[in-house]
Amino acid sequence: MKTYMLLLVGGIVMGQLQAQTDSTETTSTFSRTQKIKLSRLELKEAFMLEDQVGVSLWLDSLNRLEDPQTISLNWDERWLLYFWQENFGAFLAEAGHFGQSERDLEAWKIAPEQDSLFELVDAGLYEKRFQIFQSIQHAFLSEEEKAFTTLALEYLLRLNTNDEDWDERVVTFSQKYQQSRYNYFLGSTRPNLLKPANKAFGISAKFLSGNWSGQLERSLNPLYAAQIDVYYWVARWNINIDGIFGGPRLARDVTDGIEIWPKNDPTNFIYFGFDIGYDIINNSKVRIFPSVGGAITALKPPTPDEDAGEEYPSYYDAFNLFEGHVYTTLTADAKLFGKNYKDWDVPKGSYHGIRLKIGYNWLNFKGQNKMLAGNLFYLSVGYNLFAFFEAKK
What we know:
This protein starts with a helix and ends with a strand. The protein is of the alpha+beta class. Helix content is 37%, strand content 28%. The chain contains 13 helices and 11 strands. The longest helix has 25 residues, at 2-26. The protein has 3 domains: 1-29; 31-187, no CATH class; 196-390, Porin, CATH 2.40.160. A hairpin with a 4-residue loop joins strand 4 (254-255) and strand 5.
């Protein structure tokens, strides 16, 4: 009985070898490109039939059809087939001297014609991935080889979807096995992560609502304005340029003793400030920092449109007021969209979200007009963008 079984198996193997020989002879007049195309079709058919012997034979034929200018199987197709066969030895033998240089070199060679072989093998291996992972752990391999083979299979099947996590795992492997020959290949799989410098740029646009104190509260209606911040961040320090643009109507007649600025007249309130603050809280969800600084502010009647034939009112120069003052603010950022930094091609830690700002300004219009003595307290809410600079490599 054993003799009969051996003869039967031997007949099958010889039949496969004969079929391959016949195929080679039949295609002997074909070009190398045509032979590769036909061999890939035979390999695909053997794979679909789960014919391990046929896959091995046609895989070997395709390897022999390669030359310095031509590729018969792309490296990832060949490695997927090794994994499907659980031929970890052949995979490790190639992976030990394969890296970015070899990948770049293959890109210049003549690739096989487009077909569905990769998609077919990729889908087949994905379906049996759990079995392959188990086989790796039970294979006669060292701990280093098991760790690398597991990482390589995840990479080939594109299971490494989180770039930061993958980069950390590759670095962990290279630190644990510093002399490993497989670090050459793993180095070529590391994502191009932008490393954040300890510097950043930000900008925010907000809607501001402000209330006055003292005589200003009687002279001006509440302030509604636009506020824009542009800032530079370094090591938790915030260097900020602040602008407010609005203009409430007068709540009463304002006089300097000669001219009268009439009630309900519109105003222009323009403010430019410079302040420095420090992050007292900065985590993955929120950033809070107080600031102190100084500003230059203008309060005046609207400038007439000369092109439209408008004339300056007689009181325009009397109430064209400028002053300088100090102020303090407290700013809080809600980091709502910190995971979108990849879309902007900026380093991790960049974010955008809601900014809330509270400010108090000790205004100095009282030196020019007693009816405009008082300070400004405001609350503003808007949108903020914060982007790290890329660290120098």
